[in-house]
């Protein structure tokens, strides 16, 4: 199959190398793997995650995260896919986006947030990785051009799809590049404000997780740590962007009270492990 796909590479290149919108302000990128296949890979990963992770059995929380998630989706620059939000019951201070719009939040991270705007900031950051196609671009690079074109040819049940799901799961714990993180913070802040949230949620979230990363030996969301020069740079960039945006925070939501009520429904640390 690989050999056959190599022979038709030029044809595939002409057919499938798509220039797609990957950010605010008309930013575009060249993507080989089309959205339909990206969603198939993400759905395959979601199936595996449903087996390996404990899904938090509180439908109020699942609906709440989904509602906040869809509010941000409504103002983002990628709407050719459906977004799915899932709360995982785990003390890990983590959240991530699989390709194709499958986004996961751990109760360990939700417990550390103080307002809906802080949680929405993480949501907006993760949606931005999906909008910018960071996950699928990384997978595309890991798979290699020949396999990426094999996927682009639409072989739904192929071994390549299976390989892509396995590689995608392996890549989830690998951090993104510095420029990818900068982009996701930047778009995320734009989407956060477009959705009506106070941008201080983004700065508050980064500072909180950075402080936790400095104290704990276990890994914190995307390696954020107060001792990391990159973390300080991200906080400063966010602060500068908030100043440039010149928003009137009095009309924007922080959602502290509502969030704290929801937070009281979360399991205590060490419960259910
Ligand atoms: Zn990120």
Describe what you observe in this structure:
- The protein has 273 residues and is mostly helical.
- The protein has a domain at 8-176 and 253-263.
- The chain has 13 helices and 5 strands.
- The chain has helices spanning 2-7, 9-16, 35-52, 59-73, 107-110, 116-131, 134-143, 145-152, 159-171, 178-194, 200-215, 229-245, 256-263; strands spanning 18-21, 28-31, 84-88, 95-98, 102-106.
- A hairpin with a 3-residue loop joins β4 and β5.
- The relative contact order is 0.15.
- The protein binds zinc ion.
- The site of zinc ion (ZN) has 6 residues, from α6 and α10.
Question: What's this model, at a glance?
Answer:
With 273 residues, the protein is mostly helical.
Q: What characteristic shape results from the CA principal axes?
A: globular
Rg? 19 Å
Mean pLDDT: 88
Q: Can you summarize the main beta sheet?
A: 3 strands, mixed
Distance between the termini: 44 Å
Q: What percentage of amino acids are in beta strands?
A: 5-15%
Put simply, the count of helices is 13
- How would you spell out the order of helices and strands? HHEEHHEEEHHHHHHHHH
Count of DSSP E strands? 5
Q: Which strand order does the major sheet show? A: 3-5-4
Structural class per helix/strand content?
mainly alpha
Q: Which stretches are low in confidence, meaning pLDDT under 50 for 5 or more residues running?
A: none
Q: Which ions, cofactors or small ligands are bound in this entry?
A: zinc ion
Percentage of residues assigned to helices: 55-70%
